[in-house]
Amino acid sequence: MKGFEENIKKEKVISLIRGIFFLVALILIKLDIIPTSYPHIFNILLIIFSIYTLFTTFFPVYTYPFFYKHQIFASIDSILIAVLVYLTGGVVSPLYLFLLFPILSATLRYDFSTSVTSALLVTLIFLFFGILQKKEIILSTALSRVAEMGFLSLTLSFFLSYVGRETLKLQQKMRETETQYKITQIINSSLDLDEVFNSILESAIYLLNADGGTIFLKDKETEELIFEKVKGEKEKNLLGKRLKKGEGLVGWVVEKGEGVVVNNVLKDKRFSPYFDEITGFKTGSVICAPLKVNDDIIGAIEIVNSVYKKPFTEYDLKLVINFANEASIALHKALLYNQVNIERERMMKIIENTADGLIILDVNKNIKLINTAAQNLFSLMPEDINKNCKETLKCKDLKGNVLCVDCPLDRLYQQKLPSLQYEMKFYPQNRKEIILGCSLSALWENEKIKDFILAVRDISLSKELDRMKSEFVANVSHELKTPLTAIKGYSELLLTQDVSLDRAKNYLKIINNEADRLTKLINDLLDLSRIEAGRIEIKRDVVDLKKIINGRIFFFQNQTQKHQFITNFPDFPVLISGDQDRLTQVFHNLLDNAVKYSPNGGNITVTIKDNIKNIVVQVSDQGEGIAPEHLPYIFDRFYRADVSLTKKKSGTGLGLSIVKSIVEAHKGKISVDSKLGEGTTFTIEFPRDFPVVDPITGTLFLPYFFPLVWQSLVKVREKEIQFVLGHISYEFSEQTLSLKEKDVLRQKLAQMLKQFLRPTDYISHGLGHFYLFVADFDPLKLQIFVQRLSQALTAFTSIEQGITIRKEFLQYPNQPMSKIKAFLSDSYYGFPQEETL
359 pairs with which residues across the strands? Predict the structure, then answer.
């Protein structure tokens, strides 16, 4: 594009000279130095010519290819000046030499054909003036003028054309030299791939003074040609596109390994017009050469459309082939360098993202490279690079001795070992000691070590797991042996000795208890295997957490006399969707831990908070507590907080791990909070995990009824509003009813009950029960409500066959709040004052 920009500058210069010529002519004519015929016409045309000159000077329309390609300006210049000469005397006009301007302007463009055409056109126009002036044409003056103009025009044209040709040759030679120098610079300096692409393509376009060009690279796997770098009008639309193997002129060049020049691509069968069609670009002439490295063709360079619209020549092709050969060297170097960088970055990413720490040290034990994992393990910083490992790593063996005395790097070198594995201890700042598994190897060069490569991994956890596993095996052996010993001993006593009936019962009781203990241990082991296999089963049902926890508290209260159990429960059933047996196991293990790890007794407090959407249960003791460093691992399998504290207590270290798995299987969360010597609190959060609306009856689902009513009771007591609590249960007496028929009866009963309620009242359904809550300031309204509803229920049972309904109503303040609470708490389990309809 440089050539086209130069032409624009030249056209601006020509426009400026044209304007000066017209200004001089205007001054000469207006001062009557040169007379004019038809002054009015002359003045009008002079104004038009002036406007044209100004317009083309400040608004360069010649930047559009149409104007420049068809040499319109050379013809317009000739016509403008010809009219000016004609109106000031024709062949005898003093301004006749102005006609030499088109020749000058054509030559300034270095367009030889236009220059000669302008000379002939000027001569013919001047001769035409003589023909128009019939009387004067025969005069020697006129003839001499014509001859003079013709001679001057042709002489000037050929002379300036020659100058132009030589100038072009010189410019071309300068371009070639400049391009060669630039390519040499690229080869010797730049390795940046994008910079090399730009420099090569811009140099080639500049060399041939062309519109644009493309560098294609060959995909080694598919052998397709990729538009790797594009310069020109549609470059954004072409970048990254692909040509199939052998497609188009470029495909032919790469396949044959030869250069090609085509000046009319539409007549060449090898040309593929596909990309011209999708981009709207018009390819006219093409010159293309392969990019070779030794005998391997890595791509091609293609130059399109000369700025001057001139055809490319065989000489141009030789230039491009020579240029491509030189450029291939620079491109190949840049591609190799880029590939090395890609591989290096890939390796660095692998090193950085590997979980193991990696340290590379030179032969003097100075750190050359550390990855992120190693920085984290050894608390290193990037500025620690080039420091000696003695002052940065501070390694110790498992006994705590400094490793530098018997350095593994020295052993590897002295014994010429391929690699060396060992373990060491490291003491991070403000952290517990860690054990590192180390793998040391070396890069050898001429029997000398160039670099040491140290890979390290934190194996503290695996060491701890090994310890815990060993402890677990020992504990399980002990836990199995203890009940078996008791069972064996007491059973032998029963078999070999005559014992009294009371003593025999006592022995059998001990055997039964030890069998239960053994069963629990085996169940824990089975649960562990199910959890590891991801096969823990949850049989969901509507369960009451209060009932489950109260049952476990009753069990442990009979086992210990030192502990006092305190409960903070809501006065209503706390219902969730869960597996009763599994939840019983959860609270058994938590309460068992609370009793076991508070040997001096104290309070064990269980609190339930019903937040409607979720339920929070806390189990707290006043026991030994757990040290902060053990808290993150307390739910791990086999983990027991401190051997010195736990070795006196039975257990396998599986209880809390099983608890966590069961809680999470219920979509819940468990956490622990503890202070050493003060006690421990376990907090479990269960989601309600029920739909708010019962899908069968369209009423509030039962688990949400109790907490919502309890909140309403608090508000009612504050405002002294009266209310009625209703409990309606039903049973289907006809066993022949299908499930669908039973659902229809439930829906009818729900619709009938809703007719008696207002939007502010509650109606709930679940497990064969309907519950009602109706509040009002007027006690009479409540009494009428109960009477009308009772009558409606009686009518319902008489109309609908196969259903039995029982009802119970409590009205506050007619009934004390204590009875209301008892109703909410007990009605879920039974109907002490129910009336059957």
Answer: 370, 454
Q: Phi and psi for 152 in degrees, rounded to 5?
A: -65, -45
CATH number for 464-533 (one of 2.40.110.10, 1.10.287.130, 1.10.443.10, 3.30.830.10): it is 1.10.287.130
Ranges of each domain in the chain: 2-172, 191-342, 354-458, 464-533, 541-687, 700-836
* Cβ pair 763, 754 in contact under 8 A: yes
Strand segments, DSSP code E, in 736-821 are 762-766, 769-776, 803-812
The total number of residues shown for the chain amounts to 837
Closest by Cα among 354, 408, 399 to 377: 354
> pLDDT: is 817 or 412 the higher one?
412
**CATH number of this structure's domain 191-342:** 3.30.450.40
What confidence tens digit (pLDDT) does each residue in 106-122 have? 555 555 566 666 667 76
Distance CA 634, CA 497 (A): 47
Compute the Cα dihedral for 251, 253, 254, 255 and give only its sign.
positive
CA distance 471 to 480: 14
Q: Within 10 Å of residue 703's Cβ, how many Cβ atoms?
A: 26
Alpha-carbon torsion 541, 544, 548, 551, what sign?
negative
Residue 549 confidence class, pLDDT cut points 50, 70, 90 = very high
Which residues are 71's β-sheet partners?
none
Provide the whole-model pTM: 0.48
Q: How many angstroms from the chain centroid is the CA of residue 2? A: 43
Range 354-458: architecture per CATH = 2-Layer Sandwich (3.30)
CATH H superfamily, domain 700-836: Reverse transcriptase/Diguanylate cyclase domain (3.30.70.270)
- Cβ atoms 773, 757 nearer than 8 A: no
State residue 499's pLDDT score.
Answer: 77
- In what helix (H) or strand (E) does residue 543 lie, and over which residues does it extend? strand 541-544
Residue 301 forms beta bridges with which residues?
A: 215, 289
Phi, psi of 693 (to 5 degrees): -105, 135
Q: Sign of the C-alpha dihedral, residues 565, 566, 569, 572?
A: positive
β-pairing, 602-610 vs 563-568, is parallel
Q: Tell me if domain 354-458 and domain 464-533 are identical in fold.
A: no
Query: What DSSP string runs through 689-727?
Result: -S-SB-TTT-SEEHHHHHHHHHHHHHHHHHHT-EEEEEE
Which is the CATH superfamily of the domain at 541-687? Histidine kinase-like ATPase, C-terminal domain (3.30.565.10)
Q: What is the pLDDT of residues 765-797, one digit of tens each?
A: 887 888 888 888 888 888 888 889 888 888 888
